[in-house]
Design a protein that fits this description.
- By secondary structure, the chain is α+β, with helices and mostly antiparallel strands.
- The chain contains 6 helices and 7 strands; from the N terminus they run αααββααββββαβ.
- A hairpin with a 4-residue loop joins β4 and β5.
- The protein has one domain: SMI1/KNR4-like (3-Layer(aba) Sandwich), CATH 3.40.1580.
- 35% of the residues lie in helices and 24% in strands.
Length: 156
């Protein structure tokens, strides 16, 4: 359900246009060995959906607007290694229990105040402390949703 492969993104879609603006191409590959090492050090279970997304999108970074009342912008950065080191594994385990799936940290947004995690099926969430919310069914659409400031769906 959540796994969207690079070749599945339609060439004329708004998603592909957005991804192109932030540096993604269908031929893009990223060395995820540091991410895999960080996940393994903390006993995360890495699935094909996570490997596919990170191999394609790892290292991407983009700015997106903050709340208009506050002004300015935030940065979203797809890099599992620093996010994995910042999220206590015990806290990640509570997120896993809440969604009923294993997760892996994949990046950060909102100036580092929001961690991005991907579930085994590719569904992508934002989290911080007790806050956990679903962003999108896959990482590609999650990045686009973040850039557009789309509302997230809180997880009880």
């Amino acid at each position: 359900m959540g796994l969207v492969r690079q070749e599945d993104i339609p060439p004329d879609s708004q998603l592909r246009e957005f991804l192109g603006r932030i540096g993604w191409t269908a031929a893009r590959t990223h060395d995820i060995r540091p991410d895999i090492d960080a996940w393994n050090e903390r006993n995360y279970i890495v699935t094909d959906a996570i490997l596919e997304f990170m191999s394609s999108c790892g290292g991407l970074e983009f700015e997106y607007p903050r709340n208009p009342v506050v002004g300015g912008s935030y940065t979203c950065y797809v890099s599992a290694s620093p996010a994995t080191r910042r999220i206590p594994r015990s806290l990640a385990a509570t997120y896993e229990r809440r969604i009923g799936q294993t997760i892996c940290p994949i990046g950060q947004a909102a100036g580092g105040d929001l961690f991005l995690v991907m579930a085994a099926d590719g569904t992508t969430y934002g989290c911080r402390d007790r806050f956990l919310a679903r962003i999108a069914a896959d990482g590609y659409h999650a990045l686009q949703a973040i850039s557009l400031r789309r509302p997230m769906t809180a997880v009880a």
